[in-house]
Specification:
mainly alpha; two-stranded antiparallel ribbon; 30 helices; 49% helix
Length: 795
């Protein structure tokens, strides 16, 4: 007997699908119309993944198509994209025109001489410009400026041609979203990305995207971020040489926008073939070094022109802002190096931007904990002097005569000029004065930052009051002016970075790709760290079910943190066996740690008792989290396992660290809580001082299994905690989540399949679970460090 799904939505040879059609995705005659379009939905010149020739949408390159879909979502639909690109094109053209006029036609000598003396009688376009600009400058100056204008004029024409070329694919993507996903341009501006992905996944019930298998959420994101995941893995394992051995910059990592562009061209451009497998030629270290040196020469030639353009654009874009608000000079932002360091595997750029924006307030609070007393005293003195001069300069014209505004004071400058300069200096100096009566608690603010960034190296843990930690953090969260200066310097440093440290690291880059590559059915080659392969790369200190070798793990539990974040963002995604084991293990740890905490985190009477069942009760409530100095500095208590953390329930003291996230979307709250849980897990089991990349228990032999005799049973979870921790794995169709709140409730909740379909989700097919073809020669089967007495993994 045919199922209701088959009756409502006949799939035509695709009976293996058991879920119903989206109510908002009524199939009409559009599919046949799409199939008749040759080359629709994909750029020319690219082939299919093996077996994708029969795709009903005729997608030539699934990677490029999913990237285009994500950009269409991120840039908020067709009209926003076209408007943005036209405005950017006009901005580029105006910048070229105005910079050419200033550099060639403007007579600076006459402007600062005769025009300055004549004042209102001077007509700049008539009296301070050259009629024949090339006759008044040196040959070298004219050559550089003319080459600059020609180069960026060609770039303008290329951008214009690209806009015209992309217009038809944008229309096709708009038609796909309207007809297949039933998303209008207005819907694109308000919908969440997980819902878009859920619609694409469900669309495969009637429309083939990949003939090999139905792609799930992880497969789609892995295609979008194929190259980015490799770069994240290389940066995490520190295999790319980005440091120059020059005075004053020996320890600086040069990762700016210019370096990022060259990394893409040198390493990832041409890395994959038409079947999305790594080309055999990529493993040629000599060829890789040759590409890097070729790019070094190109950058050396283009660096003066790029520097001119960036300087002109920076002045035009920020001059008015600096004039109106001089205090913005002292503002900070996350550096490009921090952006890539804090980004997680399979994390799309808008999720990273949201996390760093949420961490901005806490980061400012943290750096303001360390004002320099000397700088503050000098700044107060300068503020007083300049403020007094500005007051006198303003009082004279107001009390006597407003004509005094143009009276010369010194250096042939009038009172109006002195007032404007004084206001600028006053704003800058006051911004350098430290805030008085501030309570010193750096660990609390660092915990607030970690809550969003998920980054906490070993030498930062419970030591946020140290000067070394402050210096490292301020290097990641730097002044905007300093970041721009670094970007300008990097333009001239890129040739040397490519020629020396990156060429030296070419063998390590090739070895990383050999060791950390896995082939996934229907996707192709991807970085194995982004595949969440816990058997191969698991780190038991962060809750992974197995503990891999040190040289195979991601540093600071980046893979485990990425997995928890990905699972929170995509509630419809069903992880494989290793992922389910990790979720079960963390849920057991959570229920044991907070067995005595009520739904609102009010009761704490059984917290230490629950901890004692793990044999480490002394680590709770001691103020140090089991690590650090016996006498902790004020504000340097444990970030996640102190008394405040225990009393505060799941999120501990960080839930009250400053920002109000009560109205945050459910997936963001769940992600933050789960990341705090990972930090608690690490401190709970690794609070005895092992190094960040070392083994699990200090003082024990490297291959020894940690003693677990104290663990007799798991405490029963509270009634409000919707999770069953049993000896058997949780079935995929009822996979629990770590959040104590019910999935799919609260404002801003990402969609679930139940919410979209109105019906339960069927269990995944066999080809979507644990289907990776692993390179078994690259790793050994690691021992299970979490084997309990009853034979089950977890806590």
């Amino acid at each position: 007997m045919a199922s209701l799904s088959e009756l409502l939505n006949p799939t035509g040879g695709m009976e293996e699908h058991d879920y119903a059609q989206l109510p908002s995705m009524i199939e009409e005659e559009y599919e046949e119309e799409y199939d008749d379009q040759p080359g629709a939905m994909g750029p020319d010149g690219h082939g299919f993944l093996k077996g994708e020739v029969g795709s009903s949408l005729r997608i030539r390159n699934l990677d490029a198509w999913f990237q285009a879909l994500y950009q269409y979502y991120k840039e908020k639909g067709f009209y926003c994209i076209v408007t943005s690109r036209v405005v950017n094109l006009l901005t580029l053209g105006f910048t070229i025109f105005l910079s050419g006029f200033i550099l060639l036609y403007l007579d600076f000598a006459n402007l600062s001489g005769q025009c300055a003396e004549d004042g209102e009688e001077c007509h700049i376009l008539r009296d301070a410009t050259f009629r024949n600009p090339l006759r008044h400058r040196s040959f070298l100056y004219n050559l550089v400026v003319v080459c600059y204008l020609m180069l960026f004029s060609l770039f303008f024409l290329w951008s214009l041609a690209r806009l015209a070329h992309d217009f038809k694919p944008l229309l096709e993507m708009r038609a796909f979203c309207n007809r297949k996903l039933q998303l209008s341009d207005r819907d694109i501006q308000t919908i969440t990305w997980p819902e878009v992905v859920a619609r694409v996944v469900h669309l495969q019930a009637t429309t083939r995207l990949c003939i090999v298998k139905d792609l799930n959420e992880h497969d789609i994101v892995a295609r979008i971020l194929r190259k980015e995941n490799y770069l994240l893995g290389m940066l995490n394992r520190e295999v790319i040489g980005l440091k120059l051995n020059i005075p004053f910059f020996r320890n600086r990592v040069w990762l700016t926008k210019a370096v990022e562009w060259n990394l893409d061209w040198a390493i990832f451009n041409g890395m994959f073939d038409d079947d999305f497998s790594i080309r055999p030629s990529f493993y040629d270290v000599t060829a890789l070094r040759l590409r890097m040196r070729y790019l070094a020469v190109v950058n050396l030639v283009l660096s003066p022109f790029i520097a001119i353009f960036l300087a002109m654009y920076f002045v035009m874009n920020n001059a008015e802002r600096f004039y109106r608000h001089p205090g913005v000079v002292g503002q900070r932002e996350w550096s490009m190096h921090a952006w890539w360091k804090l980004r997680e595997f399979n994390e799309l750029s808008h999720f990273t931007e949201q996390r760093l924006a949420a961490a901005y307030k806490g980061a400012n609070n943290y750096v303001s904990q360390f004002p320099s007393p000397v700088v503050s005293m000098v700044a107060k003195f300068v503020s007083y002097i300049v403020g007094a001069l500005a007051a006198v300069a303003l009082a004279l014209p107001l009390l006597l005569d407003d004509k005094l505004l143009h009276a010369n004071v010194m250096w042939d400058k009038d009172i109006l000029w002195v007032t404007m300069v004084s206001a600028t200096v006053l704003a800058v100096s006051r911004g350098m004065v430290g805030e008085e009566n501030r309570v010193f608690r750096p660990n609390r603010y660092m915990a607030e930052v970690v809550r969003h960034t998920h980054y906490l190296p070993k030498n930062w843990r419970n030591l946020a009051h140290k000067a070394e930690v402050q210096a490292e953090f301020e290097d990641m969260f730097a002044f905007k002016a300093g970041l721009f200066l670094q970007e300008m310097l990097s333009i001239f440093a890129v040739p040397f970075i490519l020629w020396y440290p990156m060429c030296e690291s070419a063998p390590d880059i090739v070895q990383f790709v050999r060791q950390f590559t896995v082939h996934r059915k229907g996707v192709g080659h991807i970085c194995s760290l982004s595949a969440f392969d816990f058997r191969r790369h698991g780190d038991a200190r962060y809750g992974a079910p197995t503990n891999a070798r040190k040289d195979a793990r991601s540093k600071q539990g980046k893979m485990e943190k990425s997995f928890v974040s990905f699972h929170a963002h995509y509630p419809t995604w069903e992880p494989d066996v290793g992922g389910r084991e990790m979720l079960t293990s963390l849920a057991g740890f959570k229920s044991a740690l907070y067995a005595g905490v009520g739904p609102e985190g009010a009761g704490v009477h059984n917290v230490n008792e629950s901890a004692s069942r793990f044999g480490v009760a002394s680590r709770l409530g001691n103020g140090t989290g089991g690590g650090g100095s016996k006498f902790a500095a004020p504000g340097s208590a444990s970030m996640f396992l102190g008394d405040a953390a225990a009393a505060g329930g799941m999120a501990g003291s960080v839930a009250r660290a400053g920002d109000d996230d009560g109205d945050a979307p459910r997936d963001e709250r769940e992600e933050e809580e789960n990341q705090v849980l990972l930090q608690q897990f690490y401190e709970f089991h690794n609070g005895d001082g092992t190094d960040e990349g070392g083994d699990k228990f200090a003082g024990a032999p490297r291959d020894a299994t940690p003693p677990r005799s104290a663990v007799k049973r798991r405490p029963d979870p509270p009634a409000s905690f919707e999770m069953t921790v049993s000896a058997s794995l949780t079935p995929p169709s009822s996979m629990p989540r770590l959040s104590s709140s019910l999935p799919g409730t609260g404002p801003g909740t990402p969609p679930t399949i139940n919410g979209i379909l109105g019906a339960p989700t069927s269990a995944p097919s066999a080809d979507t679970t644990d289907s990776d073809e692993l390179d078994a020669a690259n790793f050994d089967d690691p021992p299970d460090l979490f084997q309990l007495e009853n034979g089950t993994r977890g806590f």
